[in-house]
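Whiteboard transcription, Tuesday session. T.W. wrote the structure tokens on the left side:
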């Protein structure tokens, strides 16, 4: 009976691992499809969605799995992408059929071109007041137990060096005793 239950558990675990491994591999291919549909290199696509090219390369090479962070990054930059399609492969690549690849490619290039080197100030940036007393806000609060530990450390008697020994490679040593 126990052996039969164990076999069922092993089969379910193997099936679950196989399905998750298959989903990850297919999701990796869907990410590559998005990248290719936008005619972007791996480097350009990684910079576009705001992640490091090494992370994207690790996903494509199978060293790491696609995470929710990459799904969110893609969805934030390409709102028309279908998350159901991206994660599970159900439905179409884009949520609305009216959005085509050329339109999304134009949005991509215009958003990167306009936002990448835009150094204009969007509004007045408040400058911090250098002369206000914020030291009271930075003092960490201590529990009574922490205060007792600090007091115990301060109450310890200072130690003095009584002897220093130096060992040499010829198996000899010298002892130094400080003068009182």
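and on the right, the sequence the group agreed on:
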């Amino acid at each position: 009976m126990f052996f039969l239950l164990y076999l069922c558990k092993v089969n379910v675990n193997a099936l679950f691992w196989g399905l998750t491994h298959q989903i990850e591999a297919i999701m990796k291919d869907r990410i590559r499809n998005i990248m290719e549909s936008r005619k972007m290199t791996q480097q350009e696509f990684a910079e576009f969605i705001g992640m490091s090219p090494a992370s994207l390369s690790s996903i494509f090479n199978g060293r790491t799995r696609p995470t929710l962070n990459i799904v969110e990054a893609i969805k934030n930059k390409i709102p028309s992408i279908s998350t159901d399609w991206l994660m599970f492969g159900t439905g179409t690549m884009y949520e609305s059929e009216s959005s085509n690849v050329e339109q999304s490619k134009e949005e991509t290039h215009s958003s990167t071109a306009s936002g990448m080197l835009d150094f204009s100030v969007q509004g007045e940036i408040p400058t911090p007041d250098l002369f206000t007393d914020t030291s009271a806000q930075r003092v960490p609060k201590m529990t009574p137990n922490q205060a007792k530990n600090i007091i115990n450390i301060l109450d310890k008697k200072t130690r003095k060096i009584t002897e220093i020994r130096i060992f040499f490679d010829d198996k000899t040593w010298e002892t130094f005793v400080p003068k009182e």
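Someone added at the bottom: Strands lie at 164-167, 173-176.
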